[in-house]
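Subject: Interface between my chains keeps coming out wrong

I've been trying for a while to get a sensible model of this assembly. When I model each chain on its own everything looks fine, but I need the whole thing in one frame so I can look at the contacts. Pasting all components below, labels as-is. Any help appreciated, I'm running out of ideas.
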Amino acid sequence: MNPGISQYAVGDSFDGFLLIKSATKGTASNGKPFLTLIVKDQSGEIEAKLWDATKEDEATYLPDQIVKFHGEITQFRNKPQLKIFNARLAQPTDGVKLDDFLEKAPVSREDLMESITERIFEMSNPNLQRITRHFVSNYQEGLLTYPAAVKNHHEYVSGLAHHVVSMLNLAKSLVDLYPDLNKDLLYAGVILHDLGKLRELSGPATPSYTLEGQLLGHIPMMMDEIGAVAKELGIEGEEVTMLQHMILSHHGKGEWGSPKPPLIREAEILHQIDNIDAKMNMLNRALEKVQPGEFTDRMFAMDNRRFYKPLFTEPS
Amino acid sequence: MNPGISQYAVGDSFDGFLLIKSATKGTASNGKPFLTLIVKDQSGEIEAKLWDATKEDEATYLPDQIVKFHGEITQFRNKPQLKIFNARLAQPTDGVKLDDFLEKAPVSREDLMESITERIFEMSNPNLQRITRHFVSNYQEGLLTYPAAVKNHHEYVSGLAHHVVSMLNLAKSLVDLYPDLNKDLLYAGVILHDLGKLRELSGPATPSYTLEGQLLGHIPMMMDEIGAVAKELGIEGEEVTMLQHMILSHHGKGEWGSPKPPLIREAEILHQIDNIDAKMNMLNRALEKVQPGEFTDRMFAMDNRRFYKPLFTEPS
Amino acid sequence: MNPGISQYAVGDSFDGFLLIKSATKGTASNGKPFLTLIVKDQSGEIEAKLWDATKEDEATYLPDQIVKFHGEITQFRNKPQLKIFNARLAQPTDGVKLDDFLEKAPVSREDLMESITERIFEMSNPNLQRITRHFVSNYQEGLLTYPAAVKNHHEYVSGLAHHVVSMLNLAKSLVDLYPDLNKDLLYAGVILHDLGKLRELSGPATPSYTLEGQLLGHIPMMMDEIGAVAKELGIEGEEVTMLQHMILSHHGKGEWGSPKPPLIREAEILHQIDNIDAKMNMLNRALEKVQPGEFTDRMFAMDNRRFYKPLFTEPS
Amino acid sequence: MNPGISQYAVGDSFDGFLLIKSATKGTASNGKPFLTLIVKDQSGEIEAKLWDATKEDEATYLPDQIVKFHGEITQFRNKPQLKIFNARLAQPTDGVKLDDFLEKAPVSREDLMESITERIFEMSNPNLQRITRHFVSNYQEGLLTYPAAVKNHHEYVSGLAHHVVSMLNLAKSLVDLYPDLNKDLLYAGVILHDLGKLRELSGPATPSYTLEGQLLGHIPMMMDEIGAVAKELGIEGEEVTMLQHMILSHHGKGEWGSPKPPLIREAEILHQIDNIDAKMNMLNRALEKVQPGEFTDRMFAMDNRRFYKPLFTEPS
Amino acid sequence: MNPGISQYAVGDSFDGFLLIKSATKGTASNGKPFLTLIVKDQSGEIEAKLWDATKEDEATYLPDQIVKFHGEITQFRNKPQLKIFNARLAQPTDGVKLDDFLEKAPVSREDLMESITERIFEMSNPNLQRITRHFVSNYQEGLLTYPAAVKNHHEYVSGLAHHVVSMLNLAKSLVDLYPDLNKDLLYAGVILHDLGKLRELSGPATPSYTLEGQLLGHIPMMMDEIGAVAKELGIEGEEVTMLQHMILSHHGKGEWGSPKPPLIREAEILHQIDNIDAKMNMLNRALEKVQPGEFTDRMFAMDNRRFYKPLFTEPS
Amino acid sequence: MNPGISQYAVGDSFDGFLLIKSATKGTASNGKPFLTLIVKDQSGEIEAKLWDATKEDEATYLPDQIVKFHGEITQFRNKPQLKIFNARLAQPTDGVKLDDFLEKAPVSREDLMESITERIFEMSNPNLQRITRHFVSNYQEGLLTYPAAVKNHHEYVSGLAHHVVSMLNLAKSLVDLYPDLNKDLLYAGVILHDLGKLRELSGPATPSYTLEGQLLGHIPMMMDEIGAVAKELGIEGEEVTMLQHMILSHHGKGEWGSPKPPLIREAEILHQIDNIDAKMNMLNRALEKVQPGEFTDRMFAMDNRRFYKPLFTEPS
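Reply #2:
Try treating it as a single job with all components included. I did that and got this:
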């Protein structure tokens, strides 16, 4: 198989299939129209230019199309760019499919589901367990396919479940180290904390924000759903309020979208491990792309820092 | 009738009934126990000291009791204080009742209700009208008796409805001046915006925060209830989302408790008029207490400013 | 009449007159000079490119010239651009004049003046009335032609008076709703609050900042002028200080340019209604440009928010 | 002569004259009235208690009275307190006068005036020189007696002139080191920068804020006066605007009371040397009160820092 | 054995030994001297009042003395206070010793040391291992006795080692979950991160800040020591710089005392787990003191929040 | 001699030598490669474009090469640009050398060294004098050649010594004006405060940040070195701690890189004069480039302000 698009160097020629993520028309300084495409495969994405584009080109090369490109990697403002020599839409006989071009979690859906199920099974509080199980059953497909975010961290197919399972592992360690923590509440909070993203985002593959997502946000919507499910299951009592509070406060502060800060121990910890797992995901993926002795690009979601990869940190 | 407690000057003697708001025990430097009471009538409140308090006194003078006091107004750290000479619980034959000691809105319940009803009647969007009417019917008693806040503004019986009606008047003026505003959405938002306080606060008379109020807050709880009521009434569509957004965003910013800032025109205006009416209520009441040519005390909710009352602003 | 320039779509050809707002020379990658013009009519503005510009072109197409253009609407970085095929200066025989290309307030000068006069007439405090009348008489031409700001809100011919009249309407409503407000002080403050812009800005049509405007600012300059006028008219007393304070504090905070925050009730309200009217002006004009179901562009002066136009808010 | 009040230790008895700065009535826990006085001499101030105060005492021991006290230094909440055994008003025959109890600048009025005159003499720009000389002549008495501030720095008789002369010395050094600086502008700015305090504060001895001072502030008032004086002297041109800008911007930022930040080189330097001289005044006086090896109290105006006095910094 | 002082309720009488932490003299309103003592045992501390204190009392009841008190628990400003009836210094025959009155880590010194040694043993990078071992050998006594902080978290004997061992456990879990982390660097960072506190604080029992601690701080001092030790051991290369960076950046931000933010992955994680372990220590100890269904006091180091202890979180 | 590159106007032709600071490859919209060079001489720098660059060009025109260019000054995005017609590397026979193209301090190395030596000679505390002399001897070459910063202020050859000498002059003035200042401590602090830049930056000519510089920073590294030197010289006592504190705190605040704020008087003054000298250097150089009556460009390090150059400030 070909190397991914992000492995190509300036000057390399390219021949292969890529998925169009977005397409924009422009007019060159010579007055001729051109197309700017963002194209991608599982390894990453690149900007591509189709100069002297015809009306037909404009009508053909649209988002979500898979296209065979022939071109060369050039450089524009310090970033690589694909200069397209020619292009054609993928044919059924090419044997390529959408899934091959989307980045995915490095763990299988089955393994992710099993990890979640196992933790639910360990819960001893029947109210929390029933609510959690209800959501996991009813939203299983979304939970296992959606990304955890549109960008920054876990922004790939199954990213949501991958994030949840990583956090469950962290939660399990913390429960062992700090036995005062209420395991049931923490597990339920971890599993449900971002499930409102199924309403906030438009879908698993190339997600955008829904109207509800923009005007209400996943946090209040999920608090709302927990209330409704509890009522539906006939569950009353403090567990429901505590679980709703966990969801509501998991961003930690008003400025970050939580109308209440964490006011119970497990809510504070949920916020902390959400933070750690998101940061580890971002850092690991950014550091993978650089050589020992180099710095990463500025990372917006890490206060714009550039991280260094020490020379001696190579796996032993 | 006697003047209110806030009209007494240092050196005056006092004889009359007051409501106990809180009671705390202490030990004087001579080793003897004493009681510190916060006592009030409709005009305001004062700290009172009962020196050499007996065990019986401690068991008798409890919050929410009406008591006949004989004493004198002294001064402590620049604030007036009631030094109690003697005290006894009110008797049925005294003919005093709780209501006489609570500050109330300056408009009657009937008039407040009529104003609200009139605005609902003017609404033309049936979905928004039905949702609003449903809440007003179901929560009428609370709406007409709760305060709008525990302190700072409209913190008196019927304060919530008083605040709503003032804001409705403002909203009506704005709709006339800026006809692009959607009147129905704005009226519905005004009427419902703080109704979550009925769950956030413990009651109309001497309100404290409920557990739900502290961990979830009135904003997400009210958004939640609107969703439930819309479902119950079989109403779907953008009106529901917009109304939920109005509630969610009416504090204006994350730091002030709104998980989303206003993102529609009417939500921005709802935030503005909530702000103006709260400030006018605070300013008017603070300026009433000072003479022309004087400054008020520092007002915490007005960025700690002291406001000046000009010599020439007396009503003409 | 032709549609305005902001109604043209990419691909349309254009033939008509436009006013040049600014002109910049550049060198294309082929080494040839070109001109970048910002051109406008009452509907808005667009960037235009004149490729292969001659020395004569550079000397001809200057700011404030009206020019007949033939060209086509293209797209550059997601914004429309006018590609000029040919151009010539407007001739006297073309019958076009500067005024036709400038955006104006939607209310006539006469109506604006009448509204202001009416409010001054209603004032009962002779000192405040005389000072206000003096300014309105002496600065009438500027008051009726200047914009209220260089950008963001009321940034059109007569924008200052339009803003003042809108705020007077708001002030009148508030005085009715909150009778404790001093009407005279509030009206005087509204009418004079931004009059310092006549010294801060260079003129009514294509305003820039004067040196005084940049180094002193309209707020202290206007406070200064009120003091001078009061002295000239032989008026002394608290009204002058209060009116100066209204001007000084109307931006609300030090960070926003007010060396004192509002410390009297009417100053607080002046700040609030200045804020509301500016926001309504920005929101209404931004929402006019989008279809129901769409979001506006990010609005810098609204904390960079994008506002949504609901599907159901169409005027009934 | 007696040591100053600030040299007394807990347990010492006191016999001498002190000036009353403020007097407040209170009621002790035994129900008896007492007086809390703040009393002072040139060395500092102390809280004093007169227990069992009579009505006559209350009418006698008023602010600005000089009183002979007999008492003892005790301690209350970690601060020394004067417990009064007896007291009487000073008599003409006691030979004490107000001036003896007020802290003064360590430089004589004559020397301060001479330094200022000398700098004005060195100015070569006639416009700036005339304006500066006009103010110094017309406000000489106030300039030489007012404090520079109510608290924190140079808060003593002649503090304003002391601050100005210190800053002039600094300015002279800077003009030598950085010859690009415009000496005339800088000297004029230094001499006039705080002269608005003569309207902001009530008087030289025990200053409080005037109404104008609170609602307008010394910065805009002084800018205003410079404009009026320039007009009176028939001076026009950029010097006036620059000098007004120097005054307006000398607090450096909007948050600190300047409606414009420094936008010319000399304004930036004026802000810097104002800052340095105020800090040196505060630091020197705070460090004088502690022994080598000790820290000062927290200094509010120095970001609440406590400063250390090294063991080896004693004068050589 | 007696219950600890923090278990006593208002009204209880007290008879037992307590350690004096601080002693302050005061004068009562009746003119008589009294002593305010802060006294403590392992369970917590309380304010105590010795009224009518003699000169002898003042000379006897000094910090670090163990005293037998007879008295009663009263209440002052909502806090319990011990009113002392009589008191005497502990005698050798009483069989009480300093250690009995100091709070200690809940894990023995031996176990703490063993955990640290075990992790050092697991390190595979010889440079990092040698540096870490050198510090642990040379500073073993301090590491095993000092608190981790003067207040807020782990502020007890052996608190530093307790904090380190807790963090090592967390680090071990994270290394397992995120295998890209460099274990050696993380372990070395955890063990050394706060070792500068041995120079910053005066001692293990009742620590205060040293002069060096106040003027330099534990972070730069420890970076310095690592450089010196590396030189002494003849170790060069990136490991030293990385380890110094870990120490320097572990507070996360400039505002929190780190001159550099974390710029390598392990430094970010060190900051995170320092944060989590400190918070868990504070939360667990605060929640232990309240009953299910109650809130804790405001916790200053947790952004002033009060935390709720759910009714259903009791250990199963 | 030719005028410097920064004196050329758009339209001028250029013939002369320039030093390449950086070189980047690009691909034009016609598909042909081009080079973007930043080229400089002592007067400033300019962007240059070599269109249709060959592989040989790419290999030849590299950073730090001196090149003879023939071309023309054009304009791109409001900035001048050099369009290269032809180019060749400088030959030995051209008689040009690196030094001729680097900006230098306006004072000679010898004079700078003499000023520093003179101040050290005036110091009377032997410990501070010995430490300071040791550093100046050992790091003389770096001190006299390094810039004080990579950009903003004193960013030229010998900029560090130029900044130090300017600050010493300021310090001398302040010591005269405020005799309480400890001269020795202040001089030592000034001379050493930025010496850590010799490790933070890669070299004197075209400096970049070293790895140590990025991860540790010059402040903690210099504190560290002072400790090591003091130990080497056998110097103990408070002088060392105070000097280390001066270095550590000279950026003034945590946000600005100082882990401790100034806590001794001389540290506060060191911070202030570092600030003033950096600002004067930036302001003077920015104002030199504009004509009287103009504003400078926005200055990032001056809070993004543009400064005005008054018409009347020309040297008399």
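Reply #3:
Confirming on my end. Chain D has eleven helices and five strands.
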